[in-house]
C-alpha cells in the first residue's frame, strides 16, 4: 500500500543582515536562530518534513517558495518566517524587502494546482511598524478576560492562513531568549492544545502572548498582540497526532 504524502514545513530565519554596499544592514536578531531550531524539531515530531534555512536574501527567499511548488505535499503546508519587517513585507539578509503577497502568489500558481488546494499556514515573526503597544488595563467581574484581536485587511489566496506576531503598525519583540510570539507558539505545539482546531489553536497563541508576555529592559511594560487572517472554509487540525 502506498505511503501517504508527508506534510511539509519551511522555516526561514534571518539573524544577520548586510546592505547592498557591503556595510552592516539591519540589527542582528539574537535569540531567533535557537527558537527556529526548536520549532523545526517540534514540527518534525509532528510528522512534518521540515526544511530550515538560515540567512537568506530576498531573492533566495522567493526561490525557496518556488522550489516548494515542485515537491509532493501532504495535507498541509506550514511556513515560519522570522526576520526584520515592515507592514506587508519581510527583509532578506541583504536588507532587501520581500512582499508577503508575492510569496502567496508563488504558492498559488496555477502551475501547481495541488498545492493551491491544501491549507497553507504562515507564522510571521517580524515587525509591522515602529509603534509600541503600551497595553490596556482590563477589569473583569470574574474569570479571565478574553483577548481582543484585530487584523487589518490582507489579500490572501484561497486556503491560506496568516498569523502575525503583532498588529498592523506595531513592533514585534525579540530578545536573547527568543520572541514572545514564537515562544508562545512553541509552548502550544508542545502541549495538548496542539490537538485543537487551527482557529482555536491560534487564538490560544494570541492569549498566551497578550496575557503572559511583557517586554523588559528598554521597553519595560510594553505588550504585543498577535492577530491572524484566514479564508479557510472548514476546520482543520494540522498539528494533531
Automatic annotation (TrEMBL):
Q: Which Pfam families match?
A: Peptidase_C14
Q: Which SUPFAM superfamilies match?
A: Caspase-like
- Ranges of residues in domain Caspase family p10: 178-240
Biological-process GO terms, alphabetical: proteolysis
| PROSITE patterns linked to this entry | CASPASE_P10, CASPASE_P20
Question: Which Gene3D superfamilies did the record assign?
Answer: 3.40.50.1460
Instruction: Enumerate the spans annotated as Caspase family p20 domain.
Output: 5-131
In alphabetical order, the GO MF annotations are: cysteine-type endopeptidase activity
Enumerate the InterPro entries for this protein.
Caspase-like_dom_sf (IPR029030), Caspase-related_regulators (IPR052039), Pept_C14_caspase (IPR011600), Pept_C14_p10 (IPR002138), Pept_C14_p20 (IPR001309), Pept_C14A (IPR015917)
The similarity annotation says: Belongs to the peptidase C14A family.
Q: What is this protein called?
A: CASP3 protein
Provide the species name: Balaeniceps rex
- List the lineage, top down: Eukaryota, Metazoa, Chordata, Craniata, Vertebrata
The UniProt gene name for this protein comes to Casp3_1
Amino acid at each position: 500500500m502506498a505511503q501517504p504524502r508527508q506534510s511539509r514545513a519551511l522555516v526561514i530565519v534571518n539573524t544577520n543582515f548586510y546592505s547592498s554596499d557591503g556595510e552592516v544592514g539591519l540589527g542582528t536578531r539574537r535569540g531567533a536562530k535557537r527558537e527556529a531550531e526548536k520549532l523545526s524539531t517540534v514540527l518534525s515530531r509532528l510528522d512534518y518534513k521540515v526544511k530550515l534555512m538560515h540567512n537568506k536574501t530576498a531573492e533566495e527567499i522567493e526561490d525557496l517558495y518556488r522550489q516548494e511548488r515542485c515537491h509532493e505535499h501532504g495535507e498541509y503546508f506550514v511556513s515560519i518566517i522570522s526576520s526584520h519587517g515592515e507592514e506587508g513585507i519581510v527583509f532578506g539578509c541583504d536588507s532587501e524587502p520581500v512582499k508577503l503577497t508575492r510569496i502567496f502568489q508563488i504558492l498559488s500558481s496555477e502551475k501547481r494546482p495541488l498545492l493551491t488546494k491544501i491549507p497553507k499556514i504562515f507564522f510571521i515573526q517580524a515587525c509591522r511598524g515602529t509603534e509600541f503597544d503600551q497595553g490596556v488595563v482590563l477589569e473583569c467581574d470574574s474569570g479571565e478576560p478574553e483577548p481582543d484581536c484585530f487584523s487589518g485587511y490582507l489579500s490572501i489566496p484561497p486556503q491560506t492562513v496568516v498569523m502575525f506576531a503583532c498588529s498592523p503598525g506595531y513592533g514585534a519583540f525579540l530578545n536573547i531568549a527568543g520572541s514572545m510570539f514564537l515562544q508562545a507558539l512553541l509552548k502550544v505545539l508542545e502541549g495538548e492544545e496542539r490537538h485543537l482546531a487551527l482557529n482555536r489553536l491560534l487564538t490560544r497563541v494570541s492569549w498566551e502572548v497578550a496575557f503572559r508576555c511583557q517586554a523588559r529592559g528598554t521597553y519595560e511594560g510594553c505588550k504585543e498582540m498577535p492577530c491572524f487572517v484566514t479564508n479557510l472554509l472548514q476546520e482543520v487540525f494540522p498539528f494533531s497526532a
